[in-house]
Amino acid sequence: MKKAIILNKMFEGSWNDKEGNISHEIIDFALTDNGDYYVYNVPYGCCPKWVHIKGDTLKDCETHEVEYLYLTSESRRGIFDLKYRIKLKHKLHSFSYHKTGKQKDIVSGEMEQLYEKLSITYGGKKISEILDTDTPLITFEADYMETAVEPISINFSEYNYQRNKGYLKEDEYRNDYVYFKETVEKAKWIRTGLNPIVVNVENTNQYNKKTFLDLIIKAESEECYTNMLFSVLNQPGIFEAFCKTFASDRNIDYSHHFHVATTQLSRYYEWGLKADIEPVCFLLVPDFRAFLSHSNRKSEIEFEIEKNDPEMSGKYIVVSYGNVGDFIDKHKHLFNENYEYFRYLDDIIAAFRNYAYPSKSEYVQALFRQRIEELD
Known about the structure:
This protein has helices at residues 14-17, 102-118, 127-130, 174-186, 212-215, 222-233, 238-246, 265-274, 287-290, 300-308, 321-330, 345-353, 360-375, and strands at 2-9, 38-39, 51-53, 64-72, 79-91, 121-122, 125-126, 140-155, 166-169, 189-191, 281-285, 316-320. It is α/β, with parallel strands linked by helices.
């Protein structure tokens, strides 16, 4: 039997920012209440009839064996990163997507029967209660998820992987298939922690405290966090305290006037060099991108800087959202009550801390848990 590889681009960022939206593949990061593991295949939860998973009963139409489903970043100029790989165990169906009409109702009904048969619940809620049922919400039963010890970049020579799906067959794009297989086989992989969703637990880490950003559906808007940080750092004494906290090893003359820039750090850095000034550049990122994962020598963001902006490698001081929340909390005494957003300080602190998850898996599970709690 011929071989193939499934690639899925994850829906992230602004998609989850919109009211009522939650990425369907969010189930890829959690176990059911029974400890089973199911995953969603974009687009629309469908699986081509030609896909065969080793161990399943072979059907005449199944011509290509698939072992893993890979979750990827978006493709830019033909280059994308492998984020996770999921070991597939069984194909549950080969339904096609139908937006309207009789066939849509048939598929929805058969999928609902499958959810019931397999007892697929998360945090006590049926999967069809959590996500919309326009599409099949589970496509495969899986064994486990892994993440690469070090990020893996893929650059195909022939196959055009774009949008949100990719099926790389060894007999259609032989060179790219061999290149991909050799790349992932040389890489080191480690299991990602997956657990059932537990709701209504004591919030010991201050995660998921509702803030005004949730009210206006901007809890994941980078622009909001940038603006909040800009406002905070412009208060008297705060920027100096920030530098002493996160850039204590830098030689900074605090008698000078400081300009807090929020974008285009590379350009500001170049401008500073021309003026014989060594700029101090901070990079604000979610915690799971800022810190070393597993045995990584570098964090996810450090690898991205080396790849996309190598001249700035080692120039940024990476500060996590959680770090910022803790910093503001520790220095609340420096804020004057005349600060126009003084009454929002606790919300600002909570908003930054809501990003303080040590891994992407834990962050996604928190989104899942929040959705379930909203149903009660």
